[in-house]
Specification:
The chain is of the alpha/beta class and about 750 residues long. The chain has 23 helices and 25 strands. Bound molecules: beta-D-glucopyranose (BGC).
Length: about 750
């Protein structure tokens, strides 16, 4: 199949029609030219293959298969290997089911805890999201299955998800909302991206040339094709001109007439259409060539994998007095409906049809006693259930309550209204913890909740939405068969009101303004030194780790060099465990607002008791840079930075300073409105103004005579704020001198 030749033989009408899907899940065939139709299916934490009627909301049936942990859980593993194993398993399954593309990973940023689809997204941190996504994409595509990174971009809420505009500044877009996509494009080499329904600053993603062409193709050098989210098309011809390739789902009415019309009237260049057709043909060609007929999938092995992965994801948030792990001889009570009917995934297009989700109760069997405790479909306390739960807890050495967000709270299409657990669950936890001080809470959900009882319970294990085997994995963790090693990929604030997006979520009048800018998640809480329930990166283990010998291969470098960092990590406890070694970079002093620290590298390592491993990291320019709108690029300010190694963003164990010199000079245009203060920050301006101040024109302004300290500050402030133009009014410069000065400074 020579895609160029085929494209040349296609009529304008055929090319235009080829830009829309055949039905819910298939591309169009061009039978005349031997181009087959290929299938795509929803993922990303399982395969949602619909053989009957299709829908994009998780309503109609899909084949029975395995549900793995959701992205919210997976990110907490801080382990690229977890993502690789999942990508490989799904790649094999897609081969066995003749599926060419799996729609995922979801890379949107967890801006607010309320986003209904947070369980489908990795993190509040773009670096972590990008690394996890890229590892998954590489593994999936290694099996010849295309990934489709979604929802590109700024689709961080469900309210108005199809029609709203996410409005944000350039720096925020580049530092927070695009880097995960960038990593999956550059590192992961994703074959495809799904453009989001929403607009960015008023331009719909499906027609957004800046996003689809300028950034994706020209800047990131990607040859990936872009598919719309299902129904995200507005004006298809405009879309193709902007860099869009495939409209989905399409169907019989999607004939491409808008495109034909636009080519005929000259508003769309046929060469743009040809590029689109070539990208789509190339995808079909690759899928056909990489197809492995006769491939099979062993779903029992997949279930074992799902259990193992879920064990890597759970986060031990709190464990006072080493209440966990449970001991075999303890009498244990499991309390709560979720112990029996686990919550393991969310609702919507990612919904996986599983024959059976394994509960903690069935896994523990006779080892535990049980009380239902609450009705998961209600938030009203059932007094009889509460009483039974309290009595059951009293009979046990340890009570383990399984709590979390009910199904209806976490779904595509709707955001949560608040950040609370249902009242009946909060009341149950309070009552049980009073009856039995040895109470553990296991939490399910894809996003943080408020924890009003946190100080009443000694232990909390967050299992997130851990896939169909989450019950079994939870028992493994509770009893110490698996040592918890997950770390939070998002901050758990105390109250919803603390969240930086609080005043601007979900927006109004069709617009959501990302007014908090780059200060999303821990970037905000740390800058404000705000207390939180659990910070980003936090996670306990049944062992402890010690960090030593932090070494940098140089004490100073330029932004063109790389820095190699190594650190020794030792397991100082008595059981084997895994450490999530996190590397943050702190800019000591900056001319622009920056977060206190940012995650720039991480590594998960397994250590036997007493074992030491050296972890190596390589940092490049991006580790030190921020996005500078003045040069429309990532920019490194010269100065001192600190490399920090820790177990969370608030548990930094060891640090080393390093000098980094930036090699880009920022454009600096002097006008009549430039202030003395601004000039003094610029090397050339500083020299010229410094000389002027010493010699003549401004010297008197610096004289403070017998003024008090307040006036001195006032003079200083006033002087720094004087704009150059005013020097003429003040009689310090003539118009001509001012003009010459500006010309010299701009030369
Ligand atoms: C979702 C996508 C999904 C698509 C197909 C849309 O509603 O936003 O994530 O892949 O449907 O089901």
């Amino acid at each position: 199949m020579n895609v160029q030749e085929i494209m040349q033989q296609m009529t304008l009408e055929e090319k235009a029609a080829f830009c829309s899907g055949h039905d819910f899940w298939h591309t169009k065939a061009v039978e005349r030219l031997g181009v087959p139709s290929v299938m795509m299916c929803d993922g990303p934490h399982g395969l949602r293959k619909q053989e009957g009627e299709g829908d994009h909301l998780g309503i109609n049936k899909s084949i029975e298969t395995v549900c793995y942990p959701t992205a919210a859980a997976l990110a907490s593993s801080f382990d690229r290997d977890v993502m690789r194993k999942l990508g490989e398993a799904l790649g094999q399954e897609c081969q066995a089911e003749n599926v060419a593309m799996l729609l995922g990973p979801g890379l949107n940023i967890k801006r607010s805890p309320l986003c209904g689809r947070n369980f489908e997204y990795f993190s509040e941190d773009p670096y972590l999201a990008g690394e996890m996504g890229a590892a998954y994409v590489q593994a999936l595509q290694g099996h010849g299955i295309a990934a489709c990174a979604k929802h590109f971009a700024c689709n961080d809420q469900e309210t108005l998800r199809m029609s709203g505009s996410s409005n944000l500044d350039e720096r925020t877009l580049r530092e927070i909302y695009l880097p995960a996509f960038e990593a999956v494009v550059k590192k992961g080499k994703t074959r495809s991206l799904m453009c989001a329904y929403n607009a960015i600053n008023g331009t719909f993603c499906s027609e957004n040339k800046m996003l689809l062409t300028d950034i994706l193709r020209n800047e990131w050098k990607s040859d990936a094709f872009v598919v719309t989210d299902w129904g995200a098309i507005k004006d298809q011809a405009k879309g193709v001109a902007a860099g869009l390739d495939l409209e989905m789902p399409g169907g019989p009415n999607a004939t491409g007439e808008e495109i034909v019309e636009a080519v005929k009237t000259g508003t769309l260049d046929e060469s743009d259409l040809d590029k689109t057709v070539l990208r789509l043909l190339q995808f079909v060609k690759d899928s056909v060539e990489q197809r492995r007929p006769g491939a099979t999938i062993d779903r029992d092995a997949c279930r074992k994998l799902a259990r193992k992965l879920a064990g890597e994801c759970a986060v031990l948030m709190k464990n006072e007095g080493s209440l966990l792990p449970l001991k075999e001889n303890q009498k244990v009570a499991f309390i709560g409906e979720f112990a029996d009917k686990p919550r393991y995934q969310g609702a919507g297009s990612s919904h996986i049809n599983v024959p059976h989700a394994v509960s903690a109760l069935e896994t523990a069997g006779n080892a535990v006693i049980y009380a239902r405790g609450y009705d998961a479909h209600s938030d009203v306390t059932d007094e009889a259930m509460l009483k039974e739960a309290v009595e059951t807890a009293k009979k046990a050495d340890v009570a383990v309550i399984f709590a979390g967000l009910p199904d209806a709270f976490e779904t595509e299409g709707a955001d949560r209204d608040h950040m609370r657990l249902p009242d009946n669950q909060n009341e149950l936890i309070k009552a049980v913890s009073q009856a039995n001080p040895h109470t553990v809470v296991v939490l399910h959900g894809g996003s943080p909740v408020e924890l009003p009882w946190l100080h009443d319970v000694p232990a909390v294990l967050c299992a997130y939405l851990g896939g169909e085997q989450v019950g079994a994995a939870t028992v493994d963790l509770l009893y110490g068969k698996v040592n918890p090693s997950g770390h939070l990929a998002e901050t758990w604030p105390i109250r919803l009101q603390d969240n930086p997006s609080y005043l601007n979520f979900p927006g109004e009048e069709g617009v959501v303004t990302y007014a908090e800018g780059i200060f999303v998640g821990y970037r905000y809480y740390d800058k404000k030194e705000m207390p939180v329930n659990f910070c980003f990166g936090h996670g306990l283990s049944y062992t402890q780790f010690e960090y030593a010998n932090l070494k940098l291969d140089k004490d100073s470098l330029t932004d063109q060099d790389t820095l190699t960092v190594s650190v020794d990590v030792k397991n100082i406890g008595s059981v084997a465990g895994k450490a999530a070694v996190q590397l943050y970079v702190r800019d000591v002093e900056s001319a622009v607002r920056r977060p206190v620290r940012e995650l720039r590298a991480f590594e998960k390592i397994a250590l036997q008791p007493g074992e030491i491993k050296t972890v190596m990291f390589t940092l490049d320019k991006r580790a030190f840079a921020y996005w500078e709108p003045k040069c429309h690029d990532f920019f490194v300010e010269s100065g001192e930075y600190v490399i920090e190694i820790g177990e969370s963003c608030r548990d930094i164990r060891i640090t080393q300073p390093v000098q980094v010199e930036g090699t880009i000079e920022l454009p600096f245009t002097v006008t009549v409105n430039t202030t003395i203060g601004q000039l003094l920050k610029h090397p050339k301006g500083k020299e010229i103004i410094g000389n002027m101040m010493r010699s003549s024109a401004l010297s008197h302004v610096d004289q403070t005579d017998s003024m008090g300290e307040g006036s001195e500050r006032m003079m200083q402030g006033m002087m720094m704020g004087i704009q150059l133009g005013a020097l003429v009014s003040y009689g310090r410069l003539t118009r001509k001198q001012l003009k010459d000065l500006i010309a010299t400074l701009n030369a």
